[in-house]
Amino acid sequence: MTEDLSPAERYAAARIRAAEQATALAPFREMYEFGLDPFQIEACEALEAGKGVLVAAPTGSGKTIVGEFAVHLALAEGRKCFYTTPIKALSNQKYADLVKRYGAGKVGLLTGDNSVNAEAPVVVMTTEVLRNMLYAGSQSLLGLGYVVMDEVHYLSDRFRGAVWEEVIIHLPESVTLVSLSATVSNAEEFGDWLDTVRGDTEVIVSEHRPVPLWQHVLAGRRMYDLFEEETDHGGRGAGKREVNPDLVRLARMENQRTYNPRDRRRGKMVREADRERERRQRSRIWTPSRPEVIERLDAEGLLPAITFIFSRAGCEAAVQQCLYAGLRLNNDEARRRVREIVEERTASIPGEDLHVLGYFEWLEGLERGIAAHHAGMLPTFKEVVEELFVRGLVKAVFATETLALGINMPARSVVLEKLVKWNGEQHADITPGEYTQLTGRAGRRGIDIEGHAVVLWQRGMDPGALAGLAGTRTYPLRSSFRPSYNMAVNLVHQFGRHRSRELLETSFAQFQADKSVVGISRQVRKNEEGLDGYRAGMTCHLGDFEQYARLRRDLKERENDLAKQGAAQRRAAAATALEKLKAGDVIHVPTGKFAGLALVLDPGLPAGRANGHRGFEHQDGPRPLVLTVERQVKRLGTMDFPVPVEPLERMRIPKSFNARSPQSRRDLASALRSKAGHIVPERHRKQRAAAADDREIARLRSDLRAHPCHGCDEREDHARWAERYHRLQRDTRQLERRIEGRTNTIARTFDRIVALLTELDYLRGDEVTVHGKRLARLYGELDLLASECLRDRVWEDLGPAELAACVSALVYEARQADDAVAPKLPSGKAKAALGEMIHIWGRLDALEEELKINQAEGVGQREPDLGFAWAVYMWASGRGLDEVLREAEMPAGDFVRWCKQVIDVLGQIAAAAPRDNSTVAKNARKAVDAVLRGVVAYSSVG
Fold it and tell me: Which of the two ends of the chain, N or C, has the fewest CB atoms closer than 10 A to its terminal CB?
């Protein structure tokens, strides 16, 4: 090729090669066995040129190469690099990768519960650790040249996202920022913001998957391609994607009615023949069982596979189903290697705990090449599963969606059982962004030629909607940034109130809000033009039709108001009747899911809720706890009683009754049926409507009839135009309020927080008081509550286990609210302290409400949850794992995770507690030692 070049061209090419060899990128590229992709080279060159970079690329595309180049540059320049990740597991994984490359002497690790070589030139850490270092003005920041923010799209996270923005805003200007993100649809907007707050930032977006992804649907015995073969294999390219017509026919056939009994035109024999034919067709369509899916993938060479099941119990059940089906994916040699690795990694776990942790069942699955992976598992178990999967010794993993959040665990295939998941409030369809994140695991670079995403056929599936999920690129990055109390005192301490306010105005949240105002203003102008047209359409030659339309609206609103008042009166009467109920009353629940006979176990009055557990005060009236005749124990609300309820009968509730015991519920429900099953409740009579006697309604109707426009032949046409005018005018006013509300929103929230902190003497103008300095060292959702407890000496003289129980209320949140049974609490001082914490929270909550600090917007203090207090108290008191997990009714992984969060906050309290005549700091350190034992103490590193 070079022979065809002229001498001048050969000289120019040689100059280019020499220039490339002189860059830091050249030796870095030689560290890898494969060539770098264009987007990686572009990002690395921008970094070497001194620019910050935002790299948005699909999962598995190798964007972390850019982060590793930042590490390479830092070491070459004699500067430091911090590599941040959103979760500890990712930090541990990246730490291991970098140690393998650069040696343990040059790489450190800092997470909430691990500190390894913290002063190394390269330190891997969770994002929260870096945020805390920035606020504390840590000496470790000296010489910092680069910060890599892996999975930066986490800033959309409702609970933790603000931390990413805090770091980006507060990093020194001299630090070069490397932001690595999943593919997002507004990368340019995010890049514009980074350019504003960090200076020159190059945005590199890659849609290319290095391993092509094929999309399939598995129905019955057949695996269908989602898209027609000639079109871009489910693609990510520009080709038009057509849904496989076989799938469309399958969906249409399933949706056809098999038999209509009202169809009289066909004879009985014809109908029976049609039904039989349809039955035969449908026999080919079913959702394969989990073992069948794995066997099918194994037969087609599509293992290893990750099957996403949006339930921890479902993941565990899937492993058991595969074991019962006799699946064996490993040969004898693989089984031997699995046992060796597992025994080595779990050697530190005491033998008596193995049975409690389900070790032997877990090991049997691993030896067969099958495992579960979810947040309820012991961290050590999860790490072993990850290691064995990467080594090819586990070939089928059943996982919850948390596995898709960045852990380096790619597979050849990904299976989605359903396209619906529980989001904490309801069952909702997964979004295109979630689908992309999950299926992004399919296809191992350097191993697989192609990856496969398999969706299991479900009744009522719409292939077109699935194709939309697979082909849509709508995953916008939305800021979740909100000021917190801790953030406010730290900012004021460093910058003063005025400068802090200006800094918060530079957040991505405010950037997006300001940008959206432009579009809203444009819509307001369009609406005003529309209003002129509607006004012309409602003009009446007989009089002022706008006035007539207003009379009609006033009449309608008055009728609606009276109807609402009537409903409110009925609710009040129902609430009054509920307040009179006593334990042992037999009632008839008139409506709702639990309609029918029920026995009151607890009337659920606010005054009777002094134990302080979740739902401890019922703002919406009494919430009686009842036993239904169907043996269910449920806490009902006023919505279940639209009409007043009267006791039908009285029953004695045995002292031995246990709401958690199925046998107890069965016996008492049987007694309830025997006692009151024959009673027929009286029907509630409807009362005369208030509108019939209302003078205001009578006046409005009279004025309406007397108005000149009432006699217009085109009255109803004018009324339709008037209604459109009114709706558009209302919408326009709402838009104007939105413009007003979105301007300076973050700063206004900050002002309210500062007002509350000033009221409580945490701030005095630009001065941070001694209480404020204590708050500055407390991080977490309930930072202010923790500070107030220290200030009021609530935790003085508590033993280590009692203090751990109290601190658990600051961190724990039940996965699902359970009002049926009050949580068990330690007695004595711990119970009194927990009650005092609830009292302080109530005072803070009232103050927040007064100052319009809104928890719904992610600002303020949620109610403490006492659901973990008894479990951590037992553990810190030295009880065995078996007993604690049995009492807590909690998976080992959840127990360990909550314990580690308790340890983290105990450490903060030990550092922040007053030193004069206080036992809290000393007992907090003792509590850390008491909790950090056994399963909780197993190291996650090395």
Answer: N
| Tokens 């509730």 sit on residue | 653
Q: Each residue of 845-867: pLDDT tens digit?
A: 999 888 888 765 667 788 898 88
Residue 391 CB partners (closer than 8 Å, separation 6+)? 341
Strands 222-225 and 213-219, by their bridges, are: antiparallel
DSSP state, 926?
H
pLDDT band with cut points at 50, 70 and 90 for residue 235: very low
| 186, containing H or E segment | none
Q: Among residues 407, 202, 193, 417, which one has the least CA distance to residue 292? A: 417
Structure tokens belonging to residue 97: 């990768």
Query: Beta strands 596-602 and 585-589: pairing type?
Result: antiparallel
| Residues near 15 by beta carbon (within 8 Å), at least 6 away in sequence | none
Query: Is the pLDDT at 819 greater than 60, yes or no?
Result: no
- What is the mean pLDDT of the segment spanning 273-290? 62
**Residue 570 identity (one-letter amino acid):** R
> Which residues in 105-127 are b (16+ Cβ under 10 Å) and which e?
ebbbbbbbbbebbeebbbbbbbb
Containing H/E element for 301?
A: none
Q: What is the pLDDT of residue 618?
A: 47
Tell me which residue of 360, 359, 385, 355 sits closest to 372, measured CA to CA.
Answer: 385
Question: Percentage of the chain surpassing pLDDT 90?
Answer: 20
934: region left, alpha or beta (phi > 0 left; psi from -120 to 50 alpha): left
856 token code pair: 């719904």
User: Of 642 and 600, which is predicted with more confidence?
Assistant: 600
- Tell me which residue of 150, 153, 146, 209 sits closest to 180, measured CA to CA: 150
The answer to whether the bond into 624 is cis (omega within 30° of 0) is no
Distance CA 31, CA 187 (A): 30
Q: What is the pTM for the complete model shown?
A: 0.69
Q: Residue 135: what pLDDT?
A: 85
**Strand 80-85 relative to strand 144-149: parallel, antiparallel, unpaired?**
parallel
Asked if the model's pLDDT at residue 232 lies above 50, the reply is no
Beta bridge partners of 88: none
- Please give the full DSSP string across 370-385, using - where no structure is assigned: EEEE-TTS-HHHHHHH
Tell me, letter by letter, the H, E, C secondary structure of 718-785.
Answer: HHHHHHHHHHHHHHHHHHHHHHHHHCCHHHHHHHHHHHHHHHCCCEECCEECHHHHHHCCCCCCCHHH
The percentage of residues in the chain with a pLDDT greater than 70, rounded to a whole number, is: 85
Which tens digit of pLDDT belongs to each residue from 478-499? 888 888 899 899 999 988 888 8
Q: What does the DSSP 8-state code read for residue 140?
A: G
Cα–chain center distance at 109: 26
What is each CA distance from 275 to 260, 266, 636, in whole angstroms?
Answer: 10, 12, 45
- Higher pLDDT pick, 561 / 770: 770
Give the SS3 label for residue 536: helix
3-class DSSP assignment, residue 227: strand
| Tokens describing residue 148 | 């890599």
In 3D space, the residue among 313, 377, 380, 379 whose CA is nearest the CA of residue 346 turns out to be: 380
Q: Which residues face 181 on adjacent strands?
A: 56
CA–CA distances in Å: residue 188 to residues 155, 374, 437, 693, 859: 16, 34, 20, 62, 28
Asked if residue 608 has pLDDT above 50, the reply is: no
Longest dimension (CA), the chain: 107
SS3 613: coil
Collapsed DSSP state (helix, strand, coil) of residue 913: coil
Using CA atoms, how far residue 337 sits from 333, 343, 940, in Å, is: 6, 10, 21
The larger pLDDT score, comparing residue 16 to residue 869, is at 869
Q: Is the dihedral of CA 544, 548, 551, 556 positive or negative?
A: negative
- Provide the residue type at 216 as one letter: H
Across all residues in the chain, what is the average pLDDT?
81
